[in-house]
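Practice problem: TetR/AcrR family transcriptional regulator
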Amino acid sequence: MTANVSEYHRRVAAANRGSILAAASDLFLQDGYDRTSLARVAEAAGVSKATLFKQFPTKAALFEATVLAAGDSSPDELPQPPAGDLERGLVVLGLAYAEILGRPRIEALLRTIIAEAPRFPELRERTFDFGTLPVLSSLRAFLVAETSAGRASAAYPDTAAPQFLGMIATVVFWPRLVHGGSLTDDEIRRVVEEAAKTMVARYGR
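Answer key — structure tokens:
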């Protein structure tokens, strides 16, 4: 009975979290960080303020979770990199990352960070731990597996994985955020493939 009750509470908590993040995303994008209150988010999500505060004690913590949720993908949704082919596996995961960067809400929420952070120290202090995103976790695991099998030499996967994703974001995402416009699918693939070749030149064996 206790296990069933615990599972029920976990499902309720997960459902509440999803509702809160969806409502917060809408409000942050509609009204900005400044004019979005936790009370309004709770009302829009259909939960009590106590329920919201239990999961997100501050607005900055809620905003961080909203940004990370916008870039999240279920591990089941991510393509699996082929074992034994470092370059091809990097391309597979790199394209998945480029897809995340192309999501409209990711761009809009990061624009909000850039615009609002100078006025709100709590936003500047957030770490925005993108390492929790499944695509980065999958990339790190792939590099560890290839290194363990002797097909790569990434002794520091926590450094190598962000390096690869950084090469992609520098061309695919940040220029679009600052200057507007976007790359074609073929151009994005070329960026990812060149980044993968650079990684193979450095870490391949």
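Discussion: The chain has a mean pLDDT of 89. Students who identified this feature from the tokens alone can consider the problem solved.
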